């Protein structure tokens, strides 16, 4: 019962945030000067007016807002104003595939490599291997992903010729963008895992377990890893959302036709319907990630109790 | 969001330049000297598009990327050869009437659509009327390219009926066109995308031009793949009437909007062609490319002008002498040699080289040296006089605006500095996001603003009519009855001598007598082409035509 209420309230807040997001984006977007039909070569006024009329842009903003809310309530996100006769939903599904594939692979790689690196560093605390792992982690956090991307591209694609410089057609094309994209999360996860493992390793119940003469591997995987991985789980939600929605620059460098690129160009094009569509889509992903993390938390961490805010 | 990614991109560009500069030079040698005259077995041509084509419907196209692709998929009544001469396309021959106001086109009988239908005169009549139809959705922005046709503008504005429009298919093979005026350059427009035919049967489907399954064209190629944001591919159209003269079997275009990535891809061999007009080469790499692969870097003048606009309605640029002082105070060649780096040509006029005049190019017949020259001392004297006329004791602060772009920024900083050096002007350069910039310019909410214009057709009029008092492109506040009269005279007259004389007078009025704009340079097209690629055509205006490209063995 408590669980249902907890989930329902989280869900309700999600809807409210989504509504605020839609309204704020809509009015901010309309406040930027310009329209989808501007160009250095002026379109004759009568043609521009006809275009504005055809897309309903000649009406007062508040009326356009009402109309838009009505449309999306019916699941109609409209057609792009710049990419002729393409549905917004179609453009999103066409391009999100690439971002999603790239993002998911990067997440899996980050978690596996990050946790392993952190674990090894914790087990060999203050030894050479720990130091190496942590220097790598600091580098990974400090060097921005686009610098890593440009370097990888130059060394391994342009000079060595092992990979394509740009494009996203074969499995080999995934390697460089995934490395560039996961460097930072790997570093972060490794540090997170290491510090929480160290904490767990010195906990009393581990000492007890060892004293009982339990097999070291059982201790490691039953108790140490399971408890030590908690912070990583909490980080997973926001990280997933960030990677999937935030690969714009990497997509740009490697010429991957993902949603990020579409989003950025839609704004400079004042492609109103597309801006709204992608914003809502990204908004939902970010909120869902948050929502799922909140719920996962309850299951993973028994210390969170749902007794009306009085958490134990 | 936008701003941040621009900052990031700038950094990437900067970084990749540094990295590229460290690269070893051996690579350049390996691509040289292997060219033979034998054709390569694989005739797939690899290019890059810097942006997704917004449309592949000829009626809607108004940008270089979409028109470059549309040119492979469709064919108009006429074509242009590599020297810009008009050659037969779907029309076998044509006959102008004695007064030059009517044209009769005879279509070839073997022209076919990619679905096998014959291309008829009705297809042209339908396509042109479709562009002009006020009910067409979305309203074709380039409809005004058809306004030369009798009653076209009136129909487009809802003031005339469709049957009054001066285009008529007499029979399947004969198309009669009546014009408003005997416009001498009109025939050349029939090779322009807005004049391409469309197949009525397929156009009923609103999304016809978005997918390979439904796009039917009459050009040398047909659309075979289009994945949003990834690739666009066209392959040879066997139904094309002249397909024996088409060598390429496929053109594959990646869609990547990072200039640095494009050059990297080119160097790694992924692309056969890079750069303008469909892509871009970062300015900071031009110098290293010039030394690394000089035989692959091609720079060609195109009919476009880069200039600054003065807001003539506000102090201090309401004063002619101050405008002249600012125009004379800059050193264009130094700017080109050190900043823009693309071998551009210093400009003193509005009409660029490459545009036809009476017998030769307009610019050769009317050299822009007549409009004055750079002279720091004269600039200082003019400034002093101008300030006195305005009753000012010193020059107010000047703000120069440009739209966010690295090249515009560099040019603006250099020019601002030149003004400071020679005139002691206090100059702030300010970048504005594209939409904001255009709005400010249109509302005359500026002092000096960047501008650029490329030819729509091969006649000085494409530039001259920008500055009439009713032009939507005249963002200067300049209104001059005499100028309007001269433009009107050139519009309505069919005698090319009279027209050119009027346009020359108009340009003189605009620049020498009023200095409404500050011409900076005439653009060049900067491109990288592999040595084994033959017959890439860049026309006078910088339009790309790759339909007749051949790839040699390499």
UniProtKB/TrEMBL annotation, chain B:
CDD domains per record: PBP2_OppA
Domain Solute-binding protein family, chain residue ranges per copy: 86-474
Annotated signal sequence range: 1-20
Pfam families: SBP_bac_5
Keyword set, alphabetical order: Signal
Keyword match Signal: yes
Alphabetical list of InterPro entries matching this protein: Peptide/Ni-bd, SBP_5, SBP_5_dom
Protein known as: Oligopeptide transport system substrate-binding protein
Species of the source: Paenibacillus shirakamiensis
């Amino acid at each position: 019962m408590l669980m249902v209420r907890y989930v329902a309230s989280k869900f309700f807040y999600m809807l409210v945030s989504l509504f605020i997001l839609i309204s704020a984006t809509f009015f901010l977007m309309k406040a930027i000067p310009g329209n989808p039909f501007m160009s250095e070569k002026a379109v004759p006024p009568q043609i521009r007016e006809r275009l504005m009329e055809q897309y309903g842009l000649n009406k007062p903003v508040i009326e356009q807002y009402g109309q838009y809310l009505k449309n999306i309530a019916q699941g109609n996100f409209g057609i792009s104003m710049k990419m002729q006769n393409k549905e917004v939903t179609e453009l999103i599904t066409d391009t999100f595939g690439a971002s999603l594939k790239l993002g998911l692979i990067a997440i899996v790689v980050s978690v596996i490599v990050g946790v392993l690196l952190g674990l090894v560093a914790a087990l060999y605390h203050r030894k050479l291997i720990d130091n190496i792992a942590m220097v790598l982690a600091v580098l990974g956090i400090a060097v921005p992903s686009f610098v890593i991307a440009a370097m990888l591209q130059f060394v391994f694609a342009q000079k060595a010729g092992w990979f394509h410089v740009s494009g996203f057609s074969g499995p080999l094309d995934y390697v460089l963008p995934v490395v560039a994209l996961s460097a930072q999360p790997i570093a972060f996860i490794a540090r997170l895992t290491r510090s929480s493992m160290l904490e767990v390793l010195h906990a009393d119940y581990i000492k007890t377990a060892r004293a009982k003469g339990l097999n070291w591997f059982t201790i490691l995987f039953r108790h140490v890893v399971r408890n030590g991985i908690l912070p990583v789980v909490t980080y997973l939600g926001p990280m997933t959302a960030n990677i999937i929605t935030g690969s714009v620059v990497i997509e740009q460098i490697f010429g991957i036709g993902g949603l990020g690129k579409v989003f950025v160009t839609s704004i400079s094009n004042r492609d109103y319907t597309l801006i709204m569509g992608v914003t809502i889509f990204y908004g939902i992903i970010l909120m869902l990630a948050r929502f799922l993390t909140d719920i996962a938390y309850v299951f993973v961490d028994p210390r969170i109790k749902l007794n009306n805010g009085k958490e134990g | 969001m936008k701003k941040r990614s621009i900052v990031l991109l700038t950094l990437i560009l900067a970084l990749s330049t540094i990295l590229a500069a460290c690269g070893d030079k051996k690579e350049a040698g390996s691509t040289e000297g292997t060219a033979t005259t034998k054709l390569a077995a694989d005739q797939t041509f690899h290019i890059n598009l810097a942006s997704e084509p917004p449309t592949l419907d000829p009626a809607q196209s108004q940008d270089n990327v979409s028109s470059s692709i549309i040119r492979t998929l469709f064919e108009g009544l006429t074509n242009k050869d590599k020297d810009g001469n008009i050659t037969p396309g779907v029309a076998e021959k044509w006959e102008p009437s004695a007064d030059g106001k009517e044209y009769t086109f005879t279509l070839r009988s073997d022209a076919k659509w990619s679905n096998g239908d014959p291309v008829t005169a009705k297809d042209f009549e339908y396509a042109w009327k479709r562009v002009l139809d006020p009910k067409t959705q979305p309203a074709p922005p380039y409809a005004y390219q058809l306004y030369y046709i009798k009653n076209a503008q009136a129909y487009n504005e809802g003031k005339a009926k469709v049957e009054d429009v001066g285009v008529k298919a007499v029979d399947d093979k004969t198309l009669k066109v009546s014009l408003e005026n005997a416009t001498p350059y009109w025939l050349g427009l029939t090779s322009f995308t807005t004049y391409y035919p469309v197949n009525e049967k397929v156009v009923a489907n609103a999304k016809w031009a978005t997918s390979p399954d439904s796009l039917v064209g009459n050009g040398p190629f047909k659309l075979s793949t289009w994945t949003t944001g990834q690739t666009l591919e066209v392959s040879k159209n066997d139904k094309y009437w002249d397909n024996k003269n088409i060598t390429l079997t496929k053109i594959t275009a990646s869609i990547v909007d990072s200039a640095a990535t494009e050059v990297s891809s080119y160097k790694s061999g992924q692309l056969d062609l890079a750069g303008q007009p469909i892509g871009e080469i970062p300015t900071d790499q031009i110098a290293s490319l010039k030394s690394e692969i000089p035989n692959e870097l091609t720079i060609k003048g195109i009919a476009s002008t880069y200039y600054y606009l003065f807001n003539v309605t506000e102090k201090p640029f309401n004063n002619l002498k101050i405008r002249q002082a600012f125009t004379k105070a800059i050193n264009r060649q130094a700017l080109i040699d050190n900043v823009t780096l693309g071998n551009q040509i210093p400009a003193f006029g509005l009409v660029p080289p490459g545009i036809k005049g009476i017998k030769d190019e307009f610019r050769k017949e009317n050299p822009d040296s007549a409009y004055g020259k750079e002279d720091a001392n004269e600039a200082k004297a003019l400034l002093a006089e101008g300030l006195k006329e305005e009753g000012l004791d010193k020059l107010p602060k000047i703000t120069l605006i440009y739209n966010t772009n690295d090249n515009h920024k560099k040019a603006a900083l250099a020019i601002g500095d030149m003004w400071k050096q020679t005139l002691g002007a206090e100059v702030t350069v300010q970048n504005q996001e594209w939409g904001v910039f255009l709005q400010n310019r249109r509302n005359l909410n500026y002092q000096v603003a960047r501008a650029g214009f490329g030819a729509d057709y091969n006649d000085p009029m494409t530039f001259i009519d920008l500055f009439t008092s009713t032009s939507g492109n005249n963002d200067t506040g300049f209104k001059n009855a005499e100028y309007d009269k001269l433009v009107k005279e050139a519009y309505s007259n069919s005698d090319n001598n009279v027209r050119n004389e009027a346009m020359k007078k108009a340009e003189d009025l605009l620049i020498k007598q009023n200095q409404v704009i500050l011409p900076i340079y005439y653009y060049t097209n900067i491109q990288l082409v592999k040595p084994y690629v033959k017959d890439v055509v860049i026309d006078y205006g910088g339009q790309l035509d790759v339909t007749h490209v051949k790839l040699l063995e390499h």
